[in-house]
Amino acid sequence: MFEDVQESVREQQYGIAAKLLKSRGVDINEVKSKLAALKIEVPSWGFSRAGTRFAVYTDGTEPQTIEGRIAAAGLCHKLTGATPSVALAIPRDGEDCDLLQKLLSANGLAAGAINSDSFNPRQSPLDYRLRWGSLTNPIAEVRRAALQHHLDCVQVMCKLGSRNFSLWLHDGTNSAGQLSLFEQGRLLEESLRQLYAALTGNQQIFIEYKFFEPGFYATAIADWGWAYALAQKLGDRAKVLVDMGHHPLGTNIEQIVANLQMLGKLGGFHFNDKKYADDDLATGSVDPFQLFRIFNVLVEADLSGLQPIGDVAFMIDESHCLKDPLEEMIEAVDNIQRAYVLALSVDRRTWEDAQTKVDPELGDQILKNAFFDTPANAILQTSRLERGLPADPITECRARSSKQRGQSAG
Amino acid sequence: MFEDVQESVREQQYGIAAKLLKSRGVDINEVKSKLAALKIEVPSWGFSRAGTRFAVYTDGTEPQTIEGRIAAAGLCHKLTGATPSVALAIPRDGEDCDLLQKLLSANGLAAGAINSDSFNPRQSPLDYRLRWGSLTNPIAEVRRAALQHHLDCVQVMCKLGSRNFSLWLHDGTNSAGQLSLFEQGRLLEESLRQLYAALTGNQQIFIEYKFFEPGFYATAIADWGWAYALAQKLGDRAKVLVDMGHHPLGTNIEQIVANLQMLGKLGGFHFNDKKYADDDLATGSVDPFQLFRIFNVLVEADLSGLQPIGDVAFMIDESHCLKDPLEEMIEAVDNIQRAYVLALSVDRRTWEDAQTKVDPELGDQILKNAFFDTPANAILQTSRLERGLPADPITECRARSSKQRGQSAG
Amino acid sequence: MFEDVQESVREQQYGIAAKLLKSRGVDINEVKSKLAALKIEVPSWGFSRAGTRFAVYTDGTEPQTIEGRIAAAGLCHKLTGATPSVALAIPRDGEDCDLLQKLLSANGLAAGAINSDSFNPRQSPLDYRLRWGSLTNPIAEVRRAALQHHLDCVQVMCKLGSRNFSLWLHDGTNSAGQLSLFEQGRLLEESLRQLYAALTGNQQIFIEYKFFEPGFYATAIADWGWAYALAQKLGDRAKVLVDMGHHPLGTNIEQIVANLQMLGKLGGFHFNDKKYADDDLATGSVDPFQLFRIFNVLVEADLSGLQPIGDVAFMIDESHCLKDPLEEMIEAVDNIQRAYVLALSVDRRTWEDAQTKVDPELGDQILKNAFFDTPANAILQTSRLERGLPADPITECRARSSKQRGQSAG
Amino acid sequence: MFEDVQESVREQQYGIAAKLLKSRGVDINEVKSKLAALKIEVPSWGFSRAGTRFAVYTDGTEPQTIEGRIAAAGLCHKLTGATPSVALAIPRDGEDCDLLQKLLSANGLAAGAINSDSFNPRQSPLDYRLRWGSLTNPIAEVRRAALQHHLDCVQVMCKLGSRNFSLWLHDGTNSAGQLSLFEQGRLLEESLRQLYAALTGNQQIFIEYKFFEPGFYATAIADWGWAYALAQKLGDRAKVLVDMGHHPLGTNIEQIVANLQMLGKLGGFHFNDKKYADDDLATGSVDPFQLFRIFNVLVEADLSGLQPIGDVAFMIDESHCLKDPLEEMIEAVDNIQRAYVLALSVDRRTWEDAQTKVDPELGDQILKNAFFDTPANAILQTSRLERGLPADPITECRARSSKQRGQSAG
User: Fold this and answer.
1) Is residue C400 part of a domain?
2) Which of A302, B254, D13, D200 is close enough to A309 for a disulfide, judged by CB 3.0 to 4.6 Å?
3) For position A2, what pLDDT does the model report?
4) Contact B55 C130 (CB under 8 A)
5) Closest C-alpha among C85, C87, C255 to residue C168
6) Spans of chain B below 50 pLDDT
């Protein structure tokens, strides 16, 4: 939080927090132990400099190689203690699994979800015709090559011991005349069935949906409804991935989360934030109250036994265009942790009473109390210090990261 | 179309239309016979004056009674030959089934879908507490009464020989603290299962979804995904109803339609148009090209045998705030018919070729040719005249309706 | 905040707050004195039960008369010490100025802005034809009567000593064919010039804009750009009123506020919150971080001397459909006060440094510190207690309001 | 239109068109002469292959050099007779004005608007720090260099005889903490004043606004209101540029156009179409009825003398990601021409009557008649043939373009 808070102030605030939480029926030690158990996955690509379709402005400090990206992820985990796995993008991160495994191990990390960059040509027939899609490409040769690339990603999973396949397709059309929606649907289902059949062991596939972009008329999987329908057709290994930025403006995302949990199909998240479209800003930076509401749903599902929070994959997926990528990644981790702590701080018994009595004013005040009147930083920082971590990882990062990254990055 | 087109011009245009359609592989006689088979259901409430939350401006010409509304529906059918059934709202239209049946018969009409006005108190315990919802109301007594009202609606269906139950609930919350999303979901599913169990014969239930309003935080069924999941849980009698105005801005509605058809769950439509939210404007009046694209999807599904167009329920649901209700209803019917004729006029063989060759420029030109270069009015008017109907039903309505409505309205 | 915080905890938190603020270069006493100076205007209609176009669910406890509404406003001011004036709607609140003045005085209140309910017929020729608009009505007779109603409102201002005319028109069209946009613009400007000419003394007019509703094609004043252009044409007495709910989704409202301040044309606010459209929910209840950002802008303008915050009219305009109207009004006041306190708690010197050094990560952390790590409730409650007000006005309201309202309401 | 229409059919349709238009008080010869006078400017970048932030899929047929792009523009003008000028982007198109002039002349073209690609580094200090903006960059050195680049563009205008400066800035922020909105506004105004002062002769500057992207929190000029306010401050040479894709969803663009015309500040258009955000699809391809409504406004302003249509700059600005760039450009030209012809075909006298009588049903039918019942292709094609142009420029392009482009492109 970049703030020069004296240690004595933090201790005072922590003492207040313990009292407040107790009055809400919450044990602060349990909050800290749940917080310590929250694992957040960081994407290798998030440590590079991202840009927009207009320009990418690199300043030379960004890691250019897989070595640099994984080293940055390692530093992120050292500073936060919260990001033990790295999502990889294939082929962007290379396909030398031995090298990848070596780099991960050297940085104390594990392989996270494998993301098939469907838009990124690798297989030989994957030329400019990838413009027309990957798994839904109307040209059989290109479609087969795209499928093969996805099957290769499953092999990468096997070699790296990765459990989750994050499937986001760039497939979509730009006009109604381009492709029949039925044909688009048929090709998608056919390809997905073949991909699904290749999964083994405890592997699972997360189907991501997106309202638009890069397709500007009809994306192949435009909303959670279609992702859910596909996941259900495929079977138990298939779940739905919620990317925060992939919804129409105004969408009640926490309701989609709750729905998917009730249907047994919530796989996890691609965390980021948005003000307009798929802005890919730092998670919780635009609408922190929404992030809190989402965790409020997840905590409720955890407490009721519907879905343990440990079964949900929390993955960050942001585009770091302006700020330092590593710092913005840590900002996101911090925001996610805060939202979780605040959701854990809700006085649930009183809230349930308020609901039963249909007293929404009271119900809202209870959520507001948790959000606005919980000294979350004191809890977060105390928890970090107790685990031997820096209280404020961004400040620590500023002190250490340039040197660290200078040594490892390519 | 209000236009003083000479008969000779229409004949010329019709001749051109026949040639153009033939060149696209389409038989104009088949178009006319399909058009004649298209049945559009009109809602009783659409003949009343509607308003906004600010005001309802009645001018005294609007039907005030069920007699007047059904008489207006009868006139609509006489003028268009296309609207043989009337959707009824219970309890707004009363529950005297004998009277309703008599009125319908007297006007040459059949009972269409039954709409339970969930927000409209009728059962004794349905007082202001209906504010908190109907089938998801947290107060058991109110929830039971609301369910009973829905079961009563099934009885009305039985008595009137109505096949379809249109289920739109006003249920929703205005803040996150009001009600747990899981509890909202649980209550909804529980109530729906009881309602579903009451259906008999060939009855089916159409589950409608809505992005927002009157709930401003979380509507009980906010999108097609949740409506589909519920319909699937309930069984074969349950399908999804697509109301044009109930989506976030930008939503690709025709893709939702195609998805539901591929999933075997498209029940039908509530037709209207929107520019901003649930504006309930005349169907096809804001974005006629979207309406055309929807019919393009429906025609493709019909031709491929996926879902015969006759299995889709076409129902109008508009709010007639400014224009004359009957005239605006006929405007909607006219727009729907035109969109259907234009979709039937697509050169499908060439379009399929264009898709196979991945030639989107050609594909789009084919749709544009159908939309912009088909003399649809000549086809529409010729078809009407051949069936003994007025060529231009709104003009005819102006000549006749005031007298007609004066005689029948209450 | 409905929370049973022990007095000792509040004192501890207040002490921490003082230290934190000091470390940010902020004097907590100055924060409290600015907070005490913040005046928020409440609308008489906000104490009634509101509804949607579907239904209004009254439970009998809502004030039915102007006496009851003003008594509720009086109680609101007693409990919060922050709402000394009441916005009135004419003709809804009646036009007996002597009575209004007597009621206001009896409750320790002053007349706030006068709102001409343009959609509400009063003048004799204002019949159903008001459907076509008020000051832009194409029918000269209706337009003149609507103008006369607005001129009468100026007379009410004179009699009650009200300074501000809040102009929101229901005028708008539902289709492109209804009225030429140029004619709509011409009629509007012509009417506004006549209304403007009637202002005297220190009176000013606030021009409100709205994206849509009740017009669903083109509202007469759809955005701040047109409101600004009109205000500029009219003269110095005309300013722009920002209603939070009247923007397209995603709109950066604080930027509009800053723009209007730079142009010297920010009149004030109609505060509420929205998730979808003009939801009229409690201010700050959906997106509290947005409300904070808006106050952050206002505080910056105040500190820089661009526009003293005391020159901005802070008015609440919400629809209380579900919660108790008085309680929800107090919730809004509390949220506005908190946002102001948080904005006053920003470490501005460090933030300016961060901007100069183009260090957005630091800049964002500073805002986040203010938002998440300021014990705002302790400041709010201490300030209230020091002024002899209840620490938690909603809890106090629950204890007192039913009795109080029972005595005064009609 | 790619349709094999027999010549005799076109002649018949043209005859019908003449009769229909006459019945609406419109002379078909005047329509054709107005159509012939409509000049549409094409952008050099629109003949290249565009992409998204994910990928650009070139197939090798796209022009890679300025020679190729201007040759393609030349072919576009040969085929349509409607695009005599080319908008240039500096520095993308190079700054060798002699070469540019030579290429333009050789292809029968003139220089159109000069677009300063603010995001594109050229001046030496314009390195990665351009990330923070151009004319609003907080770093004085970078800001000055960006201003110098803009002043250089004015020199290019002078040399090429270009009249219009199209100003679209990539400036904007990604978070509230990055930069004060007031400072952003101050820097912008200061820079613009310097740029404005450099204009000479009949030069004018068009200020473009954009809702978002690449800035995802606050773009420097986010809406027409701010663009208008700036244009007004600057003076008569400054006008506003309306890019179709730069508005929030649902925005009534034609109303903004009418507003700007009433304020004397409409400079022109960047034509494209959108379904979601700044999709940059072919003009009129997603919502052709909106394009018609816009031209309906422009025609009304032309007829009333408010702003001659010849004073409006019609410029295409699209991203051709999937279709052949030249073909999609011609598609856009065709759609714009059709919209203009349809708007010219409105029965204005009857429409004015309908407005005066407040008969919106009739008013809408009149617009619908023009849109749906005018044989526009017959008029378009006849007009083209009479001017020695191919009836269907895309078909002709397919026959000729590959050869033509093969000869000229680099």
Assistant:
1) no
2) A302
3) 56
4) yes
5) C87
6) 405, 409-410
Residue B106 near residue B159, CB atoms below 8 Å? no
pLDDT tens figures, B354-367: 999 999 999 999 99
For chain C, give me the number of helices (H) and strands (E)?
14, 10
Tell me the per-residue pLDDT of C355-374, one tens digit each, with 9 for 90 and over: 999 999 999 999 999 999 99
How many Å apart are CA A156 and CA A112, to the nearest integer? 11
| Cβ-based neighbour number of residue B146 at 10 Å | 29
Is B366 part of any domain? no
Cα D143 from Cα D147, distance rounded (Å): 6
The reported pLDDT for the residue numbered D240 is: 98
CB within 8 Å: B16 and D19? no
Within 10 A of A22 (CB to CB), how many other CB atoms are there?
11
Distance, in Å, from the CA atom of C36 to the CA atom of C33, rounded to the nearest integer, reads 5
pLDDT grade for C1, boundaries at 50, 70 and 90: low
Handedness of CA B178, B181, B185, B186 (dihedral sign): negative
Nearest to D12 among B12, B288, B323 (CB): B12
Q: Are D366 and D347 in contact (CB under 8 A)?
A: yes
- Within 10 Å of residue D105's Cβ, how many Cβ atoms? 12
Which of A395-405 are b and which e, b meaning 16 or more Cβ less than 10 Å from the residue's Cβ?
Answer: bbbbeebeebb
Gyration radius from chain D CA atoms: 22
Nearest to A79 by CA among A270, A334, A323: A334
Instruction: Count contacts between A and B (CB, < 8 Å).
Output: 158
Give the CATH number, domain containing residue D238.
Answer: 3.20.20.150
Give CA–CA dist B77/B80, Å, rounded. 5
Distances from the Cα of A316 to the Cα of A254, A268, B259, angstroms:
17, 10, 30
Evaluated on CA atoms D78, D80, D85, D90, the torsion sign reads negative
Q: Which residue has the tokens 């617009």?
A: D367
pLDDT at residue number B7: 81
Tell me whether 0.90 is exceeded by the ipTM.
yes
**Among all chains, which residue has been given the structure tokens 């942790």?**
A337
Interface mutation target, options B1, B340, B365, chain D, most CBs of D under 10 Å: B365
Q: What are the CA-CA distances from residue B252 to residues A181, A265, C108, D357 (Å)? A: 11, 24, 55, 37
Radius of gyration of chain A from its Cα atoms, rounded to whole angstroms: 22
How many domains, in total, are found in chain B? 1
Q: Do D351 and C177 touch (CB under 8 A)?
A: yes
pLDDT for the residue numbered B51? 95
- Sheet of B164-167: strand order equals B42-43, B85-90, B110-116, B164-167, B204-208, B238-243, B266-271, B313-316
For D207-241, what is the HEC assignment?
Answer: EECCCCCCCCCEECCCCHHHHHHHHHHHCCCEEEE
Task: Classify residue C357: in a domain, yes or no.
Answer: no
Single out the residue of D129, D124, D69, D123 nearest to residue D99, CA to CA. Answer: D69
Q: Are B205 and B169 in contact (CB under 8 A)?
A: no
| Beta carbons within 10 angstroms of residue A159's beta carbon | 15
Residues A226 and A188 sit within 8 Å (Cβ to Cβ): no
CB within 8 Å: B214 and C52: yes
* Terminal alpha carbon distance of chain A: 30
Phi-psi region of C221 (alpha: psi -120 to 50; beta: other; left: phi over 0): beta
Report chain D residues whose CB lies below 8 A from the CB of C297. Answer: 181-182
Chain D residues with beta carbon closer than 8 angstroms to that of A52: 53, 213-214
Question: How far B218 CA lies from chain A's nearest CA (Å)?
Answer: 7
Using the Cα atoms of residue C316, residue C321, residue C324 and residue C325 in order, give the sign of their dihedral: positive
Specify if D332 maps to a domain.
yes
